[in-house]
Amino acid sequence: MAATTEAPESWYLALLGFAEHFRTSSPPKIRLCVHCLQAVFQFKPPPRVEARTHLQLGSVLYRHTKNSELAQTHLEKAWFISQQISQFEDVKFEAASILSEFYCQQNLVDSAKPVLRKAIQISQQTPYWHCRLLFQLAQLHALEKDLVSACDLLGVGAEYARVMGSEYTRALFLLSKGMLLLMERKLNEVHPLLTLCGTIVENWQGNPIQKESLRVFFLVLQVTHYLDAGQVKSVKPCLKQLQQCIQTISTLHDDEILPTNPAALFHWLPKEHMCVLVYLVTVMHSMQAGYLEKAQKYTDKALMQLEKLKMLDSSPILSTFQVILLEHIIMCRLVTGHKATALQEISQVCQLCQQSPRLFTNHAAQLHTLLGLYCISVNCMDNAEAQFTAALQMTTHQELWTFIVTNLASVYIREGNRHQELYSLLERINPDHNFPVSSHCLRAAAFYIRGLLSFFQGRYNEAKRFLRETLKMSNAEDLNRLTACSLVLLGHIFFVLGNHRESNNMVVPAMQLASKIPDMSVQLWSSALLKDLNKACGNTIDAHEAAQMHQNFSQQLLQDHIAACSLPEHNLISWTDGLPPVQFQPQNGPTTSLASLL
To answer: Where primarily located (predicted)?
Structure first.
């Protein structure tokens, strides 16, 4: 009892010191830490100490235990008590922020919103917390796909930061808003906003790391905007600037002087996360352009960096980066003839999605799309159709929808007996009329699909028109895979028509381009055509050389086909609903035919 007559600081600091010692022990002794903090209440502390202790207890229980009920009780008490105390901003707003985060984790989003709204309303005299809480509520709305409310809040934040004299934070709010507008495809609003952001970023003089991080944010938005539009060639200057920018950031030290304006105490992303993000957009560009070895190189670098970061950092954005990287490299593997590796990486994406419901919700459609592409590569057309159909039901993203429909149309063309469904799909992706997206790449692919159908129907002049349109578009933006596919198909048409010279003029560059990508299927197709062409022209030696090439490609593809179909993960092709299966039963052997490739 004697302790209660002493100054409260002594017993309080002693208990706090013990609690912190136990929390930071290796390994942490959380139970003892909680006991020390709970002991504070035995001394009937004043309201400030009581509120702070409830906040500390709630935070420790939330972050380090599964006792969510007790964590919620302490965080709610911290928020309630701190609102009655003046001049107590840090505890008050941290309690609101963590309590809202806790509610969201427990799927109690409707409980989180009023807490954040109230905190935003009473924090206008505390610039740091006002901006942080606006970002937090905007993020909550964005996660709920309510992008209009999120954009409104970010607009409010940008104006507040301008009034508070922080152009840096104003730029962060505006760039965040630009990112959401890009997601909503509101391109007429994006362009003036990005122009304004570019001016603010270039004119702002301040902390070098903050300035460069704003430039990275700005350039990432520009690059992804170009890539979304399928403009692989046009994006190159922006991508080069972005790569130079990240090199500059990596040479700067983090120990720069902190901003004096409390409204500017924000970082967009840690430096290490920005490096991974730049690798990621480089991989996206390389894949679209058909530089698949370059995509592989940057994927390896990025995944290595991610593994190191994930040992120290549990940030969910790292898993998102990992999944997007894997999605892109899987598509590369399917093109380069490494189906077995692609399938194992699809399984890896499944495992990552099992660990995070939000990740699965955001990537389920992509996962089924990848399985559909894998099914095409191993000639399981019924499964491909089922996977693409499942993916279409799961996405509202227009570009992904168009990509899926384009691939599903290719399945129907190969099957040859799905005319009604095929024409229904082709009406929805007509490149000559009301094409659903602005993507240059997808529109060029839609022309190719029309050309492929006309070829199978024997309407060769019509096929040539469509394929020349694809070539014109793919050459304009360096879309190497579409160029190679169009050239080899045109070569095939000219061969069928008996125009061997023109056929050769198409097939030789197709083979060269396919080797550079490298695209195994186009190499297989080109070598078969070169064999027949040279044979028809009496070039025995060249025909023998082409036949040998064709044999080599066939053997490589056959071995990879058998390896992929023998993996237990091959059973994923039957999964079209719910969470991905955890266990895979081993296959007895390949159940599919390679005849369509050979």
So the answer is: nucleus
